[in-house]
Amino acid sequence: DELVYVMGLVLELRCKLQWYKSVGVNSDVIRLNKQKALDCWNKHYADNLVQPSMNFTDSTTDLIASQMVRAKSAKGDEFKRYLSSPVVDASNMKNVLVWWKNHQHEYPNVSRMARDFLATNGTGVPIERTFSFGSDVLTPTSLLLNADTIRKRFCLKAWLNRNSETFVFQKMKSIATKMTGC
């Protein structure tokens, strides 16, 4: 599987690695895809902070520095923590990226990774959907129309589908402009 698809499933809150198991994917494939996700995480997103040096003369600074080191190591790897957490019931969610935005304090680097991968279209479906009504607009009898007329038909159809109120307003405005000559 390509990295975009692997990361799309792993970062999709309802799926993670559990989806692979639920549909009966071979455990070797699951292991390979998990490794791809971890490699991507380690290479591009893992927080590689330099541990503070313990060579301070002031004992108070040593204490604070050692507490900070312990706090960072106790937090653990953010991506592994995300993977080990249960899948999220996101059925009522309209946009998974909104969930990531709201939870970026829990997973700051994983949310950045999710934003990078989940905002990518896996296919050209949106553009294909835009033109899928072409056979409705271009009937066999209208195939001889010029390109500008076809473009106008596509635009009108898209506007009708998007918001009929706006379309009606624009149509009335256009008619009024033609009638008044302004």
Query: How many E-type strands?
Result: 0
Order of helices and strands: HHHHHHHHHHH
Beta-strand content bin: under 5%
Shape: elongated
Largest sheet: none
What would you report as the Rg, rounded to the nearest angstrom? 27 Å
Mean pLDDT, all residues: 76
Q: Structural class, judged by helices and strands?
A: mainly alpha
What is the straight-line distance between the termini? 58 Å
Put simply, the count of helices is 11
The percent range for helix content is: 55-70%
Report low-confidence residues grouped into runs of 5 or more.
49-56
Structure characteristics:
182 residues, mainly alpha, 11 helices
What is the fold's blueprint, element by element?
Layout: H1 3-11, H2 18-22, H3 27-45, H4 59-75, H5 78-84, H6 96-102, H7 108-118, H8 125-131, H9 134-137, H10 147-162, H11 164-180
Helix pairs in contact: 1-3, 1-7, 6-7, 10-11
